Amino acid sequence: MPRTDAPGAGAALAGLPAITRHRHGGGTALYLSTRLTDGAYARLLGLEPVPVERVRRGEWLFTIDHGDEEREGTGGLRLSPGGYAVQKVQPAV
Length: 93
Hints:
The protein is mainly β. Helices cover 9% and strands 35% of the residues.
């Protein structure tokens, strides 16, 4: 868990948990009083980080390489680490 006495955390948070978990019935609730990296969120939730993210907004497709190596995007595009592409695509039917 992240330290609550880290610089900038403020005396009001000293000694308090940065992450709490509560199980109820078949579910679990998490409360985070801190910001985490994408990788830390993925580990906390038990997910594998996604190296290439694709999001469609209307007729636009956004592709982002979150990894640390070159990867192939949509349509054969090569994305460098941290690279991105915005493509106009056919409207969804």
